[in-house]
Specification:
This protein has helices at residues 7-16, 23-28, 33-53, 63-77, 87-120, 130-144, 173-188, 199-206, 216-230, 240-273, 283-297, 320-328; strands at residues 31-32, 60-62, 85-86, 127-129, 151-153, 162-163, 213-215, 237-239, 280-281, 304-306. By secondary structure, it is mainly alpha-helical. Strands 1-6 form a two-stranded antiparallel ribbon. Strands 2-10 form a two-stranded antiparallel ribbon. Helix 1 (7-16) packs across helix 7, helix 5 packs antiparallel against helix 10 (240-273) and helix 6 (130-144) packs antiparallel against helix 9 (216-230). Residues 1-29 and 317-326 have low confidence and may be disordered.
């Protein structure tokens, strides 16, 4: 992947701490883990934008550079080179990029599942006994049941856990670049699966009777059923292969569901770009959409998008896919 920032520029930035919303600012006063992760993703989206369009490597994107990127993308999408893009051409180009990103996301999640298995296998015997699996579930439930009433629901106060990352100024240039590469990967991730790190994900996975509460008996029963389902050979323990394979099955279902939805969304995006409803998108129409994207990130209005600029206002909580749509255009 093309590096976003030169070493010299990184060193200068670590001294000035100019990056809006940087880890230096987070260290001065603790923020919740959820708020910090939202901030992390917003920073990553801008880093990703600069990474995609910074042709001369100066860690900022000019209107000229962005115009060239849009021109290149348009020409790549215009397969028959007739100067306009049809909905089929638009969807095909998006599917190619989407599938490439989903494959990266899938590989990363498989690695995470392998690491997760190793962490749960406390006695390091390369299999996971029910007791180890149950202990992991106990830690999960206890972490979410903050009012200790043996029920996980909206009545549980948010966890007091907070995340205070190491300040940028304490990182080497290489460490800072690695952090920003991780932010870019996080921002570009398309694969979303229920996570037990939030209440919504817990409900999706464990609220079997859909009453918006998970009591301990319901939780334990689902954990037992999941263990037995994953134990493909029925020998009472889980191997890493069984554990990862079961996760891959669920992940592939999520990928297919996302693909179907995203392809439908791509048609709606095309229709919104095709201002004159001609069924063909001209570069002028494509440019107009690009101008809106650029304006969102050019908060200072100076014709450049740079790391030291203020961060744009975040998308609303219900609009997480808008940024993907913007990048998809």
């Amino acid at each position: 992947m093309k590096r976003v920032i030169s070493t010299a520029l990184i060193l200068a930035m670590t001294v000035t701490a100019a990056l809006a919303g940087s880890s230096d600012s987070a260290s001065s006063s603790k923020v919740s883990a959820k708020d910090r992760m939202n901030q992390w993703k917003q920073e990553g989206r801008r880093l990703s934008f600069i990474d995609r369009h910074d042709h001369d490597g100066d860690a900022r994107v000019s209107t000229i550079e962005f115009e060239q990127s849009r021109r290149d993308r348009f020409d790549l999408t215009d397969v028959d080179n007739n100067g306009v893009v049809t909905v089929v051409e638009y969807q095909n180009e998006w599917e190619d990029r989407m599938d490439a990103q989903l494959e990266l996301d899938r590989r990363a999640r498989v690695k995470q599942a392998e690491v997760r298995f190793g962490a749960m296998d406390k006695n390091d015997n390369d299999v996971m006994e029910w007791e180890e699996y149950a202990a992991s579930g106990d830690r999960m439930f206890t972490r979410r049941d903050t009012n200790e009433d043996l029920v996980v629901d909206a009545m549980d106060p948010p966890s007091s856990y907070s995340w205070t990352p190491k300040p940028d100024s304490e990182l080497t240039a290489e460490e800072l670049q690695q952090r920003r590469d991780r932010q870019i990967a996080y921002a570009r991730n398309m694969l979303e699966m229920p996570t037990t790190h939030n209440l919504e994900g817990m409900m999706v996975k464990y609220d079997q009777n859909a009453d918006e509460r998970i009591d301990r008996a319901e939780f334990d029963a689902k954990r037992r059923a999941d263990f037995d389902h994953t134990d493909f050979d029925g020998n009472g323990v889980l191997t890493a292969e069984e554990y990862v394979s079961e996760f891959e099955d669920r992940m592939d279902e999520a990928i297919e569901s996302f693909r179907v939805s995203s392809i439908k969304q791509s048609k709606r995006r095309f229709e919104s770009l095709d201002d004159d409803a001609s069924g063909e998108m001209s570069f002028a129409e494509y440019r107009e959409s690009g101008n809106r994207i650029f304006a969102r990130y050019d908060v200072s209005g100076d014709g450049y998008i740079a790391l030291e600029d203020p961060m744009p206002a975040p998308f609303e909580e219900e609009e997480p896919k808008q940024e993907i749509a913007a990048n998809a255009e």
